[in-house]
Amino acid sequence: MSDDLWGTDRLDLTAYLERIGVTEPPGPSREALEEVYDAHLRTFTFDNIDVLLDQHPGVDLPDVQGKFVGRGRGGYCFEHGTLFAAVLDRLGFAVERRLARVGADPTAAGRTHLVVVVDLDGERLLADPGFGLSVWRPIPLVDGAIEELGGITHRVRWSEHGWALERGKGEGWEPMHTHDEALVVPSDVAIGHHFTSTHPTVHFRHRMIVTKLLADRHVSLTHDTVTIRREGEETEHHEIGLDEVMAYVDELAVPLTDEERTRLRKRLTTLG
Predict the structure, then answer these.
(1) Can you spell out the DSSP letters for 180-205?
(2) Does 221 reside within a domain?
(3) Residue 191: its pLDDT value, please?
(4) What is the pLDDT at residue 133?
(5) Helix, strand or coil for residue 114?
(6) Residue 129 confidence (pLDDT)
(7) Contact 204, 222 (CB under 8 A)
(8) pLDDT < 50: residue spans in the chain
(9) Which of 103, 96, 126, 101 is nearest to 112 (CA)?
(10) Most buried one in 45, 108, 199, 236, CB count within 10 A?
């Protein structure tokens, strides 16, 4: 698909690479893809804070770039996918944006998740930077492909509804999302974002979610719980109070203005 459709020439690639601390690779390669993907996950949070604060700037590339690269903020799938796909485009990778349906039953969900598929030397790889606990490196888009990293196992499976991504849980598999191969254009992303950030029934309107992959652990924060995963250790899950929640927001290096912090704290008190 032509880069012109997505306007990736508007991306300040140098500023993005400086933000994530990566030197521009000489060309597309599996090593370069994994390096940029890993740095992206460790730099930017997955979060819905702007949705809760009713101040989301939108998902046009300059808006996402200003938020992520300019401010160092994070966001959710439509933002991560928009930015990461543009970066890969500019680095010379062959990229497709695809929409997914979240949950166990694809027939009960809208296409409200954005993933990135990379074609590298004839091998397709699924990159999913905008899902709270997703693959920590791109996974081959092959039926039955399994990847284990950091103590978490994922599997890709071809189903009647498309490509399903599943996470190992106990002795079985937990469905995460299913994407199809239909054409995706910028207006699809804008419409999906609008629904996901504004519709009163969407969980992003009623629950805070902030996740980040740190050097030694993965942290998942909500408005009243924290979950910490470390390789080789039992998962920690605790209910926490508002002061602890705000302390974790600081620990995860979410750059908020004083005014945003005040409004976020107030908003969190309204969540059930």
Answers:
(1) ------HHHHHHHHHHHHH-TTSGGG
(2) no
(3) 97
(4) 87
(5) strand
(6) 97
(7) no
(8) 1-2
(9) 101
(10) 45
Gap between the Cα atoms of 139 and 134, Å rounded: 10
**Which residue segment(s) compose the domain that 179 sits in?**
3-202
- In angstroms, the CA 4 to CA 2 distance is 5
Q: Do 249 and 221 form a contact (C-beta atoms < 8 A)?
A: yes
H helices within the chain, ranges in order? 3-6, 13-20, 30-43, 49-52, 61-65, 77-90, 186-198, 242-251, 258-268
pLDDT at position 239 is 98
Instruction: Read off the pTM.
Output: 0.96
In a domain, 225, yes or no: no
Report the alpha-carbon distance of residue 15 to residue 168 in Å, rounded. Answer: 36
Q: How many domains does the chain have?
A: 1
Q: In what order do the strands lie in the sheet with 172-179?
A: 139-140, 123-127, 111-120, 94-102, 172-179, 162-169, 152-159, 146-149
* pLDDT given for residue 132 in this prediction: 87
